[in-house]
Design a protein that fits this description.
This protein has 15 helices and 18 strands. It has helices spanning 29-34, 36-42, 77-89, 108-115, 175-190, 232-243, 259-266, 279-282, 295-309, 338-349, 380-392, 395-405, 442-447, 452-465, 467-471, and strands at residues 9-13, 46-49, 93-98, 127-128, 149-152, 157-160, 195-198, 249-253, 274-276, 316-317, 355-359, 473-477, 484-490, 495-501, 507-508, 515-519, 528-529, 534-538. A hairpin with a 4-residue loop joins strand 13 and strand 14 (495-501). The mean pLDDT is 96. The protein binds 6-O-alpha-D-glucopyranosyl-D-fructose. 6-O-alpha-D-glucopyranosyl-D-fructose binds next to loops.
């Protein structure tokens, strides 16, 4: 079946950790080319590459120093073109990461901007004089901890960075900035990309005057004056008009977004095709000091979004990405049932309404890693957090926070084999391989017909061949059973029922008659679900 734009299954590659072809310890574009047969055999329709542009890598490439180049760490433009062509020959589309809320401090625009108060590019970024006490102009906090402002000693002014100190925010109020970004996007379209994943795309527009927020520490206030700011829809409509066409797939990462605004961004005629939202990941609060993971609550949020967004907007579905600890490691009881829980989560993700995004390693059940001390961390947010925990709570607190919340859990190298360095590199990996690679790796999974990997393949193929799984409505049932998540996907001529046990204990379940399409246990008793059992039935 030819997948429509919305029915595609998309695989996120974190290039630095995917496959290293030249032994320097860093994944690269030639490494991706090597693995295209693997991607093809998985059955995915597109890949999204996290940033591969020239960058000081302070935020692992989300700090871009040149929007039109390729970071030599990953290869050359010729390598990129070879990868694009090889993907296309394999029938796989290519989505690039568009990071336009901020650049790197190393970007020539910022170098010019900071060079002097009267530089023509001064206004391309957000500069303000100090507050009367000499401190930052307002109380905004950076996503990565600390003030969102840094003083530039030379000019005596502060610049705004919602993320790290190396990621100054562009001034989207300036029409020249917007025109230059649109031109850059057009150049990538001309180079043959098939879509864009737009990084924190709903924070471009700041409230004029940049007022302080009510309580910078409280999550609800965090984005008060920049999340979905006053001109965001104008900016995105303009970008779409100037640079994008319907054949491209656009997926926005929407920070702190609620259902109502997510619909506005993705409805018919809206600026984006689809959007990532985070309520199902963020309900635990601070990732580094989270509330207990609660599968019933997770599914309740998913159900609310499924029902709410239906026919109005379009969801980009994901359980893992490069910013989240591995979901499998968060679920109570899943350590005892890794295989079953991974397959249960896969069943859930691949039977929901929306466009499915998989993250590298999820398809073999990769888990969180262990970071012995600060020297093993690479992520700027984790390093900041380590330092603040050491200052306030000491070593044990720092370990606890990192083991729960670090983004580095998702960034350990892809585990290809049980051999040296998990088959990721012949050199020294830029970040340690998870020690469990001897058991959890692609090679082993290929050989085991009952592996998580083969289960993903079957589900991907099932979704591609089952219209109701793409376009059918979502209706939850058996809601009175909190240990289960049960729903139907209903289209005009078929109905698929999904029964999931969210717990590591057997649970009674409603009887649903019909043909069993897939499941993670051999056929069992019709009225009981085994630990983390998943069943998909053509009802
Ligand atoms: O706001 C969040 C959830 O509601 C955050 O998780 C937010 O989505 C995230 O911090 C933004 O991430 C993106 O932009 C960052 C970069 O470090 C991340 O890797 C990227 O995914 C800055 O570019």
């Amino acid at each position: 079946m030819q997948a429509s734009k919305f029915n595609r299954i998309i695989y996120q590659i974190y290039p630095r950790s995917f496959r290293d072809s030249n032994g320097d310890g860093n994944g690269d574009l030639r490494g991706i080319i090597e693995k295209i047969p693997y991607l093809r055999s998985l059955g995915v329709d597109m890949v999204w590459l996290s940033p591969i542009y020239p960058s000081p890598m302070l935020d692992q490439g989300y700090d871009i120093a040149d929007y039109d180049g390729i970071n030599p760490l990953f290869g050359s433009m010729a390598d990129w073109e070879a990868m694009r062509d090889a993907l296309h020959q394999a029938g796989i589309g290519l989505i690039m990461d568009l990071v336009v809320n901020h650049t790197s401090v190393e970007h020539p625009w910022f170098r010019e901007s900071r060079a002097s108060l009267d530089n023509p590019r001064r206004d391309w970024y957000i500069w303000r004089k100090p507050a009367p006490d000499g401190g930052p102009p307002n109380n905004w906090r950076s996503y990565f901890g600390g003030s969102a402002w840094t003083l530039d000693e030379a000019s005596g002014e502060y610049y705004l960075h919602l993320f790290s100190v190396g990621q100054p925010d562009l001034n989207w109020e300036n029409p020249d900035v917007r025109a230059e970004i649109a031109a850059m996007v057009r150049r990538w379209v001309e180079r043959g990309v098939d879509g864009f994943r737009m990084d924190v795309i709903n924070v471009l527009s700041k409230t004029p005057g940049l007022p302080s927020v009510g309580d910078p520490a409280a999550l609800a206030w965090a984005g008060e004056h920049f999340v979905n700011g006053p001109r965001i829809f104008d900016y995105l409509a303009e970008l779409k008009r100037e640079a994008l066409d319907e054949s491209l797939l656009t997926v926005g990462e929407l920070s702190y977004v609620d259902l109502v605004s997510a619909i506005r961004f993705t409805e018919e005629g809206g600026p984006l095709d689809m959007a990532f939202s985070f309520e199902h990941m963020d309900y635990i609060g601070d990732r580094f000091a989270p509330a207990d993971w609660d599968m019933a609550e997770f599914c309740r949020i998913i159900a609310r979004w499924q029902t709410g967004i239906a026919d109005r907007g379009h969801a980009a579905l994901f359980f893992n990405n490069h910013d989240q600890p591995r979901l499998l490691s968060r679920i109570p009881g899943a350590d005892q049932y890794r295989d079953k829980a991974a397959k249960m989560l896969a069943t859930l993700l691949l039977t929901l309404e929306g466009t499915v995004f998989l993250y590298q390693g999820e398809e073999i059940g990769m888990t969180n890693s262990i970071f012995a001390d600060r020297s093993h961390l690479r992520d700027v947010e984790s390093l900041n957090r380590w330092d603040s925990e050491i200052a306030s709570g000491g070593e044990a607190a720092a370990h606890r926070a990192i083991n729960l919340g670090s983004r580095d859990h998702a960034r350990t190298p892809m585990q290809w084999t049980g051999g040296s360095k998990a088959g990721f590199t012949d050199g020294t990996p830029w970040i340690d391989v998870n020690p469990n690679y001897r058991e959890i790796n692609v090679d082993a999974a290929e050989k085991d017909p009952d592996s998580i990997l083969h289960y993903y393949r079957s589900l991907i193929s099932l979704r591609h061949s089952t219209p109701a799984l793409n376009d059918g409505s979502f209706v939850r049932f058996a809601e009175e059973m909190p240990a289960l998540f049960c729903y139907r996907r209903q289209s005009a001529d078929e109905c698929i029922a999904v029964l999931l046990n969210l717990t590591p204990e057997p649970q009674p379940c409603p009887a649903v008659n019909g043909e069993r399409l897939i499941g993670n246990y051999p056929d069992g008793a019709p009225d009981t679900l085994s630990p983390f059992e998943a069943r998909v039935i053509r009802a």
